[in-house]
Amino acid sequence: MTTTPAQLAAAIPKAELHIHIEGSLEPELIFALAQRNGLSLPYPSVEALRDAYAFTNLQSFLDIYYAGASVLLHEADFHDMAWAYFLRAKADNVVHTEIFFDPQTHTARGVPMATVIQGLSSACERARAELGVSAALILCFLRHLSEDDAFATLEAALPYRQHFIGVGLDSSEVGHPPSKFSRVFARCRELGFHVVAHAGEEGPPAYIREAIDDLKTERIDHGVRSLEDPALVAELARRRIPLTVCPLSNLKLCVVDDLRQHPMKRLLDAGLCATVNSDDPAYFGGYMNANFVQTVEALDLSRDDVITLARNSFEASFVSATRRAELMALLDDAVA
Ligand code: HPA
Ligand SMILES: [Zn+2]
């Protein structure tokens, strides 16, 4: 029996590097946590909530995403959310994952930083022990808030610094350029954290340039608008700065009108270290394999493209050289 590129994409081991853990909160779990915590929701049912997931742009999604996250109060809530994600990741043959979390969404509601980080961190340890999935956390600053707020968040998180490997930048992009966070990112680099940033999802290629030049980010999250600036594409390719691309997110947030117009193939053909990721899978219609399979089918990607995407995911990850070699060997075995 021959394997199609889409079947291969589903079957092979891969890393996920762009997943907001709050975006993995399924409507069923939102309702269950609301009930557990004695909260009422402005939607009568799971179906009514899911029906509200019709987005026109990034902001229309963020409004409902932050509302969904408001059911998270206790350490067990954060743990249970992340554990549900790990089970989905495992089912999709994700063997390593680097997970974004948005502490300001929770601390602004009075949830202590310790509650957020310890709940997520214990789920990461459990994933390693029970599922063999390696996992690390990346703390994201909300870019619609001030740099002072980001500094205060960093300060509050530093007692738990052994639990996260890096920092990122997310939320409303346009009007909040990376340079707004130059000083706090410089401090994070000094402290030895990995640094990434969302750029070029809705924002212009100039924001990608700011992220790499000013924030000195090691990866760009999304970055699909880089294609509007050929000199930038050439530099990203030459420096092997990875892009963590999220095809179903781009479709649901109307960054592209149709998956057949998605730039993934053009990014690969330009020699970029592009990867496939789910972003906010509970909101955008699918986890890792849904993204992989639908993109492969829509763009008619080849077996080689699929293997390149999986290799890129390991190359772009922040694992040790030993773990990277282990992951690459898993992939080699799977495609042999
Ligand atoms: O796709 C996204 N972009 C920006 N901020 C986000 N926060 C969650 N998902 C996203
Ligand atoms: Zn994202």
Keywords:
51% helix; TIM Barrel; single chain; eight-stranded parallel β-sheet; binds zinc ion; 336 residues; binds hypoxanthine
CATH architecture type: Alpha-Beta Barrel
The first-level CATH class is given as Alpha Beta
User: Based on helices, strands and strand pairing, what is the structural class?
Assistant: alpha/beta
Quote the average pLDDT.
98
The strand order across the widest sheet is 1-2-3-4-5-6-7-8
Instruction: Note poorly predicted spans.
Output: none
EC number: 3.5.4.2
Catalytic activity: adenine + H2O + H(+) = hypoxanthine + NH4(+)
Protein name: Adenine deaminase
Cofactor: Zn(2+)
Question: What do you see in this structure?
Answer:
The chain is an alpha/beta fold and 336 residues long. The protein has a single domain, classed as TIM Barrel (Alpha-Beta Barrel), CATH 3.20.20. The protein contains 17 helices and eight strands. The chain has helices at residues 5-11, 27-36, 46-51, 58-69, 75-91, 103-107, 113-131, 147-157, 182-190, 205-213, 230-238, 247-252, 264-269, 281-284, 288-299, 303-315, 321-335; strands at residues 14-20, 94-101, 134-142, 166-170, 194-199, 219-222, 243-245, 274-276. An eight-stranded parallel sheet has the order 1-2-3-4-5-6-7-8. Strand 5 (194-199), helix 10 (205-213) and strand 6 form a beta-alpha-beta unit. Helix 1 (5-11) runs antiparallel to helix 15 (288-299) and helix 16 (303-315) runs antiparallel to helix 17. The longest helix has 19 residues, at 113-131. The chain starts with a helix and ends with a helix. The structure holds hypoxanthine (HPA) and zinc ion (ZN). Hypoxanthine binds next to helix 4.
